[in-house]
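Review form for a predicted model. The reviewer records the input and the model, then writes brief findings.
Reviewer: anonymous (R2)
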Amino acid sequence: MSTKEKVYSLLRHSNKPISGEFLAKELNLSRTAIWKAINSLKNEGHLIQGKPNEGYFILEESKEFNAEATLSHLNPNNRSHVVVYETIESTNTIAKQMAELNEPEWSLILSKNQTKGRGRFERAFYSPFGGLYMSFIIRPSIQLNDVNLITMNAAIAVYDAVKKYCHIDLGIKWVNDLFLDDKKVVGILTEAAIDFESKSFKYVVVGIGINLKLSKIPNDLKSIITDLNISDDFDKNLFVAEIINNFAINTTKSKLDIVSHYRSNSIVINREVFISGSYSGYAKVLEITDDGELIVETKQGEKIMLNSGEISLRRINHE
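Model under review:
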């Protein structure tokens, strides 16, 4: 933990002011180091009161993206470390670099903006200020052919967090997007490194982009994306931690539990979609299997099982 994180932890768990002298002695640091940490926390939006002869006390925690606040809300079994950026090219890119350097599982990267946000198939992912862009590292022990479960887990983790804190029921589009009123509001990108000898995952980076409250949506995207329109006092750190905590809890559940939750909130079953991939064309979605695969029926009456590829609702809606 950094000095700032240690100071924050002591202040947060105290029900009375703590003197700078006590903080310095407890953490074996200089009073100057404590003062710098306090100022840094204030600059990040924490309302900290300091009174002579009494000490420091947190009056209100920051609700903007903040490493210490997010850490404080994470469950101990999935609490590692959090890094917050103002702007970054891609949280997934940084998370993969960290994973290659053997950074611990559950390490989390947050950014308020991405200049080179990526979606599936290297598509650009619109990532302006007003969104939440996060990536975290996991090292799952699941089989390689269960990789879709990771994305499905992320989807329901976000779904549950949005429902709890925004009181909105999103719809899940197979396999990695969440929609509101048939417009995309969440994108998920999972990227993995595989050990071919053991046929297992070295690591997986789970990237999630959420449109919280965008100040402006370009004209060419207005029919495609929307946002959650969060309130000004929305606690972003609590929301981020909820997603991670949900994801971690879901990893202890059975495959059938995850797929059932995912399936029950799908917006593609019994709908016509356009498929891109090994098969290209229009088809009706019949079901999502217990392995997370999509069964569709083509215009010619042929039933096809998809375990990868891309489906589009937009192409249907705008033709």
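Findings: The first strand starts at residue 47 and ends at 51.
Further findings: The chain has a mean pLDDT of 91.
Recommendation: see findings above.
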